[in-house]
Amino acid sequence: MPTAIDFLKPAELRPGTMTDGPLGRRASQRSHSVLLVARLIGGDADDMCLVRDVSSSGAQIRTQQALRVDDRVVLEFGGSLSVDATVRWVRPGTAGVQFDYCIDVENVLSATTPKDARRSTPRIQRCARVLLSTAALEVEASLIDITPGGGGVTLKTPRTFPHGTQIMVSIKNFLQRPAEVRWQVNGRLGFQFYERIQLSKLDCWLVNTVELCRACPNQRSCHTANRRDPHASGPMFAQGRRHMG
User: Fold this and answer.
1) Beta strand 32-42 with 45-54: parallel, antiparallel or unpaired?
2) Which of 13, 49, 162, 237 is exposed most, by the fewest CB atoms within 10 A?
3) pLDDT tens readout for residues 105-147
4) How far is the C-alpha of 94 from the C-alpha of 88, rounded, in Å?
5) Measured in whole angstroms, how far is the alpha carbon of residue 75 from the centre of its chain?
6) Which domains does the chain have, with CATH numbers?
């Protein structure tokens, strides 16, 4: 399960700037100009975003999602660290968010730094039909989640793919990319792409497929339709899951 960031005291943020007030000005001076990939969970979004600046009290993010002022969102860093926030200002393709509590920025930077062979970018859950193929067979599957570096699927028919098997992963109107099988258990399979997906391409596809997940007839298996409502009261920490890519 993602780790809750240490609480210090409430942050302050005003539209159009990172921070305001005595606390805000001090936090702004400590802001870090970065380029981090995070998972953005909100009322109309479960997608990636780019974090351009982050301080102890808030962040500036780039996203194609239609956020609104006062929207409640969650930023998940590296799949292991989550923080609740409120949208305070919006511009085309950019938004400023205020964290519920001041955070330790070093925790964010650490969460997005790979410490081993596992990925440091978030997994995004989506509904999509996937075709896995080798020289000998083709197997249909349903997408579980995806990152720029890989993903996970549920196989529609039982098949065994030994660890390290080279496969072609195809998703209609999105990609056809060679990958390697990393694990398989209980009808599910995880793979890693040999070449990472370009972030802008993946982000565009994620935005365009939001409605597909909302319209999924199998609500129990559609992760996006079943994620927690960010407008609900109480902390909103995304559930940790097995690394897949």
Assistant:
1) antiparallel
2) 162
3) 887 877 665 544 444 567 778 889 999 999 999 999 999 989 8
4) 11
5) 8
6) 3-111 (2.40.10.220), 128-208 (2.40.10.220)
38-88: pLDDT as tens digits? 889 886 677 888 887 888 899 999 887 889 999 999 998 876 788 999 999
- Dist CA 133 CA 110 (whole Å): 37
Single-letter code of the amino acid located at 76 = E
Q: Are 243 and 79 in contact (CB under 8 A)?
A: yes
Q: Count of alpha carbons within 13 Å of 227, Cβ hemisphere only?
A: 25
CB atoms within 10 A of CB 105: 19
In angstroms, the CA 35 to CA 40 distance is: 15
